Amino acid sequence: MTAAIRSPDSPRRSRSTGKPTTYPAKSKVTSIARARRAKTGPVLPNYSPADEQAKPRAAASVLKVMPDRQSQPMWLRSLLRMERASSAAVVLILGGALTLYGLTVYGEQRWSQEYQKLETLRRGEQQLSAASEVLKNQLAKEAANPETGLAAQKPADTIFLRPAPENRSPGAAAPNSEAPALKNPSSVATPLGY
After folding, report:
1. What single string gives the DSSP state of each residue in 99-165?
2. Could you report the per-residue pLDDT of 123-154, keeping only the tens digit for each?
3. Terminus of the chain with fewer CB atoms < 10 Å: N or C?
4. What is the C-alpha to C-alpha distance for residues 123 and 117, in angstroms, rounded to an integer?
């Protein structure tokens, strides 16, 4: 469809003086007023809701007026509030469930990784204890060989040492030696970092 627009150079006509220009039926030019009327339908002077039901219009050009909230019944308003509250509760529950699921999956993955580390450490411990026993056995065999020059222990070869006589402990003499140092603070060497 093509719409005709009047150029600014054309002479102006008063809208109230005459009818809109009519074009032949087979013409490709349509006036803007006719195109608007075709979209919205004719304007009726005595418009009523009954006429609206009789003549359905295009959905794009019809504006629906929402009913006033005060005109809604109390039970409908309470149902709408319950719907909003339940929607919010569902969103919160879904968020909590997804969070719990994520934490569970993460915890299981973390646990399996740590368990694998534990199993690796256990295997290493077993290998170390086996290697230690092999070394002990090898040392025992070498000690039994007379070519190594090692002799078996005998109770007669045991050496007993006498304990040293108790003198004044070094801690008792320390307070006497520190007392002159405290009297002359310039002689005490202190690190530069303090």
Report:
1. HHHHHHHHHHHHHHHHHHHHHHHHHHHHHHHHHHHHHHHHHHHHHHSGGG------GGG----PPPP
2. 999 999 999 999 999 988 888 887 877 777 78
3. C
4. 10
